[in-house]
Amino acid sequence: MATAPKRNQWKTLDRDLKRISRLEQATQYVSRPLVGPGIGLAFIILAALGAAFFFGEGPNTAIILAASAFGAYMALNIGANDVANNMGPAVGANALTMLGAIGIAAVFESAGALLAGGDVVSTIKKGIIDPQSVADARIFVWAMMAALISAALWLNLATWIGAPVSTTHSIVGGVMGAGIAAAGFSAVNWPTMGKIAASWVISPVLGGLIAALFLAFIKSRIVYQDDKIAAARKWVPVLIGIMAAAFSAYLALKGLKKIIKIDMSTALLIGAAVGVLVWAVSIPMIRRQSEGLENRNKSLKVLFSVPLVISAALLSFAHGANDVANAVGPLAAIVHAVSDGETAAKVDIPLWVMVIGAVGISFGLFLFGPKLIRMVGGQITKLNAMRAYCVALSAAITVILASWLGLPVSSTHIAVGGIFGVGFYREWLMERRAKERGVVKGKILAPEERVRRKLVRRNHFMTIILAWVITVPAAATLSAVIFFGLRLAFV
């Protein structure tokens, strides 16, 4: 009888411990979704405090702190949304793990922004607003602030619904909306806006067409050959050389502008020279790598995986060099207007402003990027190393071609358009083969079966296209509303 109370006490203790354990598990489950936003908020606060340290005290310090916080928020959203387009295909093709993709992208995005990012940025993005229409420095500051906030909010919403959208178009819409609110419709350069609107169609169509052509080439010259390994030894070095040429020309145009200004013809010559050199080096490398491989399609993945990873890293470097201005451009414009009391068509980007953009993009990718990486890499259409390589190659070549033709294009639209192009080409090829087999066997596929066999998921396709179409008007409307709110509150 004496031991009974002790046994009951242990039972009571066990029950209490189980309750505590369940409470801890529930707390961890509930708090897990809050870790990312919590770290992001901490970065935004640190960015604002860092801006206060570098800018110093003054009557307008509060404006700089607010602008730096929103610039950091914008950078986080660029990392969460835009960088997925570079790494998604490599992850979807299983050439990179999610952690490896995030690590490579973070390093190369930051390197591109800090080493090759522009020293000077246009304050009125793409020349869509007449600078004279917002000559008042105070009005200009609120317009840039509204543009920054609206673009960041739109990117945040697009990431939440799983739609990769153009950060360039988001900030263009934000600047346009704020400019209209500040100075009326006459302030907008409508021919320039027409070119940007045309890029909604040009970018994905051109990217998709080039990606599909490369995939058709790979299938005809390598995949459908009797001796696939021998064909790969011949043509994979050529494809690697084309990749090296395209990226060298692109990086010569974008990445060397701090050192020397290079025109298109010089960039193409640099690209051609590098391409030939890399092609020659790749021949013995591919030959050694292909030794002992079986004569089947799965073996070809080995030969395309390393070039795919390199192309993804180079795309990240180029993106960091080119698109960091989307995060820090309006912030740099605000800093200049507050410091000098005037607006300018172009301003220098302080190093601390560039650091906010570079670090913010990396943090955004690490904290929120996996969702879009998974969607771009595996949920639009199924990718393998060869298809993903075609997408990366298409992105580099399309940007070069667009720069040569003077067309404003979006890297996001090109990359996702390349994925669409690869998927739709495979659908067309599958249907053509099915019809050929049906004619031979006297069978025709039912409409329901044809729908079931679609290789591009139509729900993702329609969501992305709709998000692309409404990005500029949505960001513009939101920016105008924010500008009016800021002016009523502070001006």
Give the structure's gist in a few sentences.
The protein is mostly helical and 491 residues long.
The biggest beta sheet reads:
2 strands, antiparallel
Helix content, binned percent: over 70%
β-strand amount: under 5%
Shape: globular
* Strand runs, count: 2
Mean pLDDT equals 81
SSE pattern: HHHHEHHHHHHEHHHHH
| CA(first)-CA(last) distance | 82 Å
Number of domains: 1
**Count of helical segments?**
15
> What is the rounded Rg?
26 Å
What do these coordinates show?
The protein has 491 residues and is mostly helical. It has one domain. The protein contains 15 helices and two strands. A two-stranded antiparallel ribbon has the order 1-2. Helix 3 runs parallel beside helix 11 and helix 7 packs antiparallel against helix 12. The protein is globular, with a radius of gyration of 26 Å. About 1% of the residues have low confidence.
Please outline the helices and strands:
Layout lengths: L3 H52 L5 H21 L2 H9 L5 H19 L3 E3 L14 H25 L5 H17 L6 H34 L4 H27 L9 H27 L6 H44 L5 E3 L2 H29 L5 H21 L5 H31 L5 H6 L5 H33 L1
Antiparallel strand pairs: 1-2
Helix pairs in contact: 1-2, 1-11, 2-5, 2-10, 2-11, 3-4, 3-10, 3-11, 3-12, 4-10, 4-11, 5-6, 5-10, 5-15, 6-15, 7-8, 7-12, 7-13, 8-9, 8-10, 8-12, 10-11, 10-12, 12-13
